[in-house]
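Here is one chain, start to finish.
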Amino acid sequence: MEADGEQLAARPALESEGLRVLHVTVGSLLATYGWYMVVACVLLYALVQKLSTRLRSLRQTRLDRAAAEVEPDVVVKRQEALAAARLRMQEELNAQVEKHKEKLKQLEEEKRRQKIELWDRMQEGRSCRVSARRPQDEDSPGPSASSVPPKRKPDRKPLRASGYNPLSGEGGGSCSWRPGRRGPSSGG
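Its structure:
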């Protein structure tokens, strides 16, 4: 019986020794690589979440494709709706093109009418510029442009002798300009 008691006493000592070794090795691993393990666990969690959402979306698209393949009416309705939308968009585009063509035609007609009016004015002997000022002249009463004589420009006299050329260095008094030396600068 005594041998059984010694075995029982030896057993907890071995278990505590094993726990101590396990505690030392796990503690040293956590002390050395603890932050790396935490970061790795967070990255692994994020990766699992991302993959699970991607797998769910893939399953959903597969189910949608399977449902579309099973129900050809849905596919036909979808294609008809797409064709109707395209047709509506084409009709809108055609209407815009027609409006643009009409606008261009009106602008062309307006230009043609202005050219004819300009030609008629020239045939009558009136100038083209009078037509631009005409509405202002009609609104403001006062002397007409023909009754006011135009101002004369003053005659400018030459500043120097007739043969003056500032770049030649001649005939201009004590100052003369000569171009600088060509080539690279002579720096240190």
